[in-house]
Amino acid sequence: MTLRTLIMARSGIEDKFAQLALGLTEAGKPRILLMGSALTRHPDYKYFQLFEKKKHSTESLAKSFKRLKEAGFRR
């Protein structure tokens, strides 16, 4: 599950699709995403937190590289 989470974060998929892939949906309703305390109480919520953390750090790194490239930085 951790590897799947890291791959999703690295690929930059939307949060709602990550939630679906991690099974953070209402029981018996696979298309209805959990929200609020129901989401945070889910046993796999820790993976969604990891996804958000890694996605944010990946986006920040990509922005940094883009700024360097725009500034004319070359290897």
TrEMBL record:
It comes from the Eukaryota. This is Unnamed protein product.
